[in-house]
Design brief:
EC 3.1.1.-; alpha/beta; disulfide bond; 5-stranded mixed β-sheet; Rossmann fold; CarbesteraseB; carboxylic ester hydrolase activity; about 160 residues
Length: about 160
């Protein structure tokens, strides 16, 4: 679910934490991170955390007709942020110095967390790279139409 990369930790050391949310149009991608980039960050005494979250229909399908709210991918990210806040000290991280960074769709996710009361206090800084929650692709106004197509194609007519 998540990866924690740490520099060598001495007793009592506490490092800032960079949490990276991958992009991929909310349909592809993973917590795999360029190893060279992680090594460079760890040389500068930063803990790097990457995370997976549910994607595509498993993560973002919204269908009010079946009482499916969607946003499960964002809920996965929120669960990871809560875990980091609670346990990062065991890895030498400082839960009061967490930067949430995302690229493309990951940047949109960071934007959603910036405006979510549920995420308040789970990170102190944010960096949005190549996207925001205002990007035209960050929210689908046709989600219910696409869900209709999806469920009709599968022959599903009710939640039961």
């Amino acid at each position: 679910f998540l990866n924690v990369y740490t520099p060598k930790v001495q007793n009592g050391q506490s490092f800032p934490v960079l949490v990276f949310i991958h992009g991929g149009s909310f349909t592809i991608g993973s917590a795999t991170f360029d190893v060279g980039g992680v090594d460079l960050l760890m040389e500068n005494e930063i803990i790097v955390v990457t995370l997976n979250y549910r994607l595509d229909v498993l993560g973002f399908l919204r269908y009010p007709k079946f009482n499916i709210s969607g946003n499960y991918g964002l809920k996965d990210q929120h669960a990871a942020l809560k875990w980091i806040n609670r346990y990062i000290a065991y890895f030498g991280g400082d839960s009061n110095r967490v930067t949430l960074m995302g690229q493309s769709a990951g940047a949109s996710s960071v934007g959603y967390h910036l405006f979510s009361d549920r995420s308040t206090g789970l990170f102190q800084q944010a960096a949005l790279l190549s996207g925001s929650l205002l990007s035209s692709w960050a929210y689908s106004y046709r989600a219910e139409f696409f869900a209709d197509v999806y469920f009709n194609h599968l022959g599903i007519t009710s939640r039961e």
